[in-house]
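[job 0412] stage=fold_complex status=start
inputs:
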Amino acid sequence: MAAKSSIRPTYAVISKAAGVSEATVSRVLNGDENVHPDRIKAVQDAVAKLGYKKHRAASSLASGRTGLIAVVIDDDLSIFSDPFWATVTSGISRVLMENDLQTLLMVANLDSLDGPVAHSLQGGEVDGAIFFQLHKDALVKRLVKQRLPMVITGTPHTSNDFVFVDTDNFGGAHEATNHLFSRGCSQVAIITGDIETTAGRQRLDGYNQAYRKSGHVPSKHLIAEGDYSFESGKAAMKRLLDQVESLDGVFACNDVMALGAIAAIEEAGKVVPDHVKVVGFDDSLLAQTSRPTLTSVRQDIVALGEAAANLMIAQLRGEDAQPCILSTELVVRESA
Amino acid sequence: MAAKSSIRPTYAVISKAAGVSEATVSRVLNGDENVHPDRIKAVQDAVAKLGYKKHRAASSLASGRTGLIAVVIDDDLSIFSDPFWATVTSGISRVLMENDLQTLLMVANLDSLDGPVAHSLQGGEVDGAIFFQLHKDALVKRLVKQRLPMVITGTPHTSNDFVFVDTDNFGGAHEATNHLFSRGCSQVAIITGDIETTAGRQRLDGYNQAYRKSGHVPSKHLIAEGDYSFESGKAAMKRLLDQVESLDGVFACNDVMALGAIAAIEEAGKVVPDHVKVVGFDDSLLAQTSRPTLTSVRQDIVALGEAAANLMIAQLRGEDAQPCILSTELVVRESA
DNA sequence: GTGGATGGTGAAAGCGGTTTCACCATATCG
DNA sequence: CGATATGGTGAAACCGCTTTCACCATCCAC
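[job 0412] stage=fold_complex status=done
writing structure:
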């Protein structure tokens, strides 16, 4: 038994100080309605005076609630280069902390239905889990069945069963594409992200719809697939420039690929935005520091995290949580 | 009492299945030496067969150990734009998980000695804490006194008392500066980071020493102070160009400022690297995607996290943990 | 062969909360 | 006015694991 660094007061102490039973202390501290105001006050005073703080482990053991929410991140490439998840996580963490919940971070490969993460989540070690960018939803589906409260950040493939929050990928892409047309472009290409992901798919859909609405017809030649990396953006742009001579606008599904595209355009001896206009997505730091600075679709990433946390809290309260789509905003800079 | 989603086996079940007492089950599961091999096997078999997993809360309550390590991040600007901490954290998290410890994420303002974070840490809710970039060490000092195992990521100001891991800021800056001289520069400036931080100070020291070793004398005019932001880098560079006509090299203490510097240089009508060579620090994604691509000092950020986690684990085991400095590597690209 | 280490074990007492249950007051009803 | 709900309360069981303690074997030395 590890020596306790300091002797914390327990219910025994509080109840004595307040002149009530431990049961009543518990009632007060858990917001039970049926306690006489006088005793509520007595307990609260004692708690304040003695600087009492509940012992999490003891509370968990007795109640079955841990006060822990897992934030589960697939152990993927993107994490190491993209500040996105860090920002979302900080939003989540803040809201959870305000609600007296703690954030348990799990970075791991989620393919296995049997890894340590899966065990933790199934083993009742947490009260809920917030997932990021789902590639495979086998694990999540199972957890839903076990009635673990969950929130997905990013739209899942089979959306009906899950509670999720997401940026309005469709709307953002739509606006980006429209912007290029309104700037006078007539041949607008798209460099997609991974279209296996819903975000990638939705951005492509937004592009397509904007294209059709503009009266133009989106040609297959104008669609190049990327994977969110700089190199893929550059390569895709090279292909596009080769195939479509009159190309004068491109919407890249993230900022990194947009920079790749700009690199390719300049290597081809053309100038951004004079010859080809470029719009990115994310409005990351890159968009502000690149030259030319990048017009980009901004998403409120912190808000995304906060929304995820709030949906989780709603579920824990037993309220029913509706999926939530956050709107985007186009930030116009030099590139388009 | 929340209904348990599934009935987990308990010691009662295991001990019956293995034909031993619960005490012995506990001994086996906690690696007690003095148990007969036959019983160890019996228990292990029962555990495997029944898919037993320890109940964390119960274990914590009884043992006083929570199995939780806090990763504490000051609620600062940098977090939202810099992927640095995310990467470190993922390294930490991985190592902790491999050692059956969990990562509790706390993003909060650490100025107050009395906030929720301080309470959690002091209240025995975690077995240890890993801090990032310390600005104020009042809280940390207090926790050290309370004998909470701690690791600081980044060199603390008063280093003697703490266990910490850090990148070799001095060495990296030294190498960067040397590189500029070896490329033929003679007037090499530095754009420092926040020199209130030890990292900022060490990088400046490395620059100074490299300068002296080269036989040149570092002039005060060659030192411009920045704050790690793009704008500060740009402004600093503008000042430097105004003051030192013959300037032909600059070492910026991070990549973002290096990009700011490049922007200022080009605005002044000069060319990188022909007229002025630039070296950054971090080797972030920015360094690879900027144009010209950026020569930068690379630090192994994941390793930094892993080292921090390993130092924590060593402390938990009662071994004494020595501070640890990770070496850097200069990645040469177009800018210098 | 006896006394004292030593290894191996189980019963039982916690750890610090939560929750059930029985109980005593009042308040409400017919 | 007796019978029945209702609010408020404390005693005690319990959550699942850890650890102390007492105890019984052995094993060793003398």
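[job 0412] summary: Chain A has 14 helices and twelve strands.
[job 0412] exit 0
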